[in-house]
Amino acid sequence: MAISQVHLYKQFDTSSRHQALLNQLTIAIRSCTELEQILKLAVDGLVRTLQIERSLILFLKYVDPLIKNRSQKPIPRAKATVIYEWSILNSEGNQPSPSSINQSFSLSDCGLCQMAYQHSPKPLIFNEKNSTSYGDSTEGVTAIFDLDSMPNLLLISLESQGTVLGFLALQQRQPRVWLTEELELVELVSAQLSIAILQFQTLRQTSALVQERTDQLEWSLSVQKKLYEKTRQQIDQLRRLNALKDEFLSTMNDQMRNPLASMRMAICMLRQPGLPVERQVRYLDILEQQCNLEINLINDLLTLQELKSHKTKLQPQKVDIREIIERLEQSFTEKWSVKGLSMEVHLPKRSLILYTDADSVNRILNELLTNAGKYSEPDTKVVLRAIYQANQKVPQIVLSLSNIGSSISPAEQDYIFEEFRRGEGVMQKGIQGTGLGLALVKSLVEHLNGVITVSSSLIENSPSSLTCFTLTLPQMQG
User: Fold this and answer.
1) CA dihedral over 101, 106, 111, 115, signed as positive or negative
2) Nearest to 70 by CA among 153, 158, 138
3) Looking at the structure, do residues 383 and 278 belong to the same domain, yes or no?
4) Residue 11 lies in a domain
């Protein structure tokens, strides 16, 4: 009875330890987020419970994922990789043996793994390397199992729904008789590990799918954001274009209707019988003046269109810039006398001759001086300077024209050279113009391969600003 009780006690203790290990694995599978923790718990539990000297866990990666079921193909093409290892040689403080972690081999190169694959899910037991229990399986056995040091091996597949996920290997140096309850424990632990592996593989695939869908969603939102921003910019541009259209129509309405109204009035007056000769001459002058305004406006529009379409042909020749400036100085000094404006010219002593288009240069300077006269405050000076730069690869003349008047904001400077664009408040101040002058200047300068810029800065202790147009005219090719 005493022997029977001791035997029952041992059976109960063994069963309790086995059940405790299985319970720990079950809880770990439910709560752990790392597969390595579960593998370590399973191997450590088997080592303590079964007194194992070495344990390996191997994963299988199939070459063809569609063919990985044992019922479809006896030995599929697959690669086995060691993902976890425990050895008593390392734990005893001896010189560590080389690690087998991450070492791989082909399933077709290992007879033992092939036998375990074919007999899944039952464990295979091999005692002593030279024993007949190995049969022909020792041919081509991978060195990872190290049968020379630990020839006694229990190898069981990790299987789930007919698919072998990997192998669990338990090794010892001495032969061992495996008890039924021990084999049952190994099978149950293998089943638990298979569940854990499948669960983590599914979780990893799900996480990858979620990440892929998240990336796609973020990309879609990014594209939608860009489309929204582009649409918003297009709407803003349409609003600006609509404002420009209204401004253009308003400007053209004044610039075309007013001369036509004056011409109609002059014609009506000329039709009156018995009109004195001096009044006839006066109305004819009005008619001619307003007609010229209409012709100039139409010519400006046509010239601008030709310049933009590059249909205008230039006639380069030797041009003395000094002569053009002197003629314009005399003409504008007379025009500006009513407003009290004066013109100050600074020219170098040396010649200002360029090979360029004379008509274009004359038109550019004429428009710039006209613009300066419109926006200058009364009784101020318009300063024109010119310098000759011969130290450049291409000789060029730099002219600057400055006047004192209202400030040009940075925003206005961005579009001041666009056609039909005029500064803020110009219409309210009653300053005449079509918004074509500076656009023509810009197009003509570019046609001469030149550059024009504008700057405006406040004058100290004054509400006025100094506005300066800088024009660079290079030597054209002959």
Assistant:
1) positive
2) 158
3) no
4) no
